[in-house]
Amino acid sequence: MAIRVLIADDHHIVRRGLTFFLQTQKDIEIAGEASNGKEAIQLVERLQPDVVLMDLIMPIMDGIEATRRIKLRFPDVHIMMLTSFSDKDHVIPAIEAGAAGYQLKDIEPDELVESIRKLVHGENTLHPKATNHLLTRINQNEGKELHLQLTKREHDVLKEIASGKSNKEIAAALYITEKTVKTHVSNIFSKLEVADRTQAALYAVKHGLQK
Questions:
Q1: Mean pLDDT score, 122-137
Q2: Domain span holding position 105
Q3: Do 44 and 103 fall within a single domain?
Q4: Of 96, 156, 104, 97, nearest to 125 (Cα)?
């Protein structure tokens, strides 16, 4: 089944260029195009794409707010920020809003395609600068050993998160319900003082908690 991609960018040329290239991929289908964050939300509701390529700076509603609202209503939609900004003031809010990917617009076409494929398989895909900003944030909690607050089952779930598994895959691996996984994930985020799976995974790697 093809990966259905929605492109949200206020520049028509950017949207056309991405569409032209991505539709040449046999496993990718362009679900639609949005010129601002508000339109992106409306199209996600109507078209139910697998992945949204989201620009950061757009009129009417920016990409961060649009991402936050989409993830609240459609948590299974994977969002990748595709932007020209790599500073922490843009990276951190985007990841906290729920973006599982963060790439710059100068990314090589083949790398972009591979990043999209990784997203639908539950893997985070971040530009090195974005990763560095997140690690810096995690380092601010260095020495707190926040993971000591986790229960054994929460440790197990964290290891699965670090391996890139989705909630459904974690449920199958640990023989628990997906609802239970969601509860554990929420507790992990709270105890580790992280905002999403990307930050939780980075925390696990940094503290040697991954598989």
A1: 73
A2: 3-136
A3: yes
A4: 104
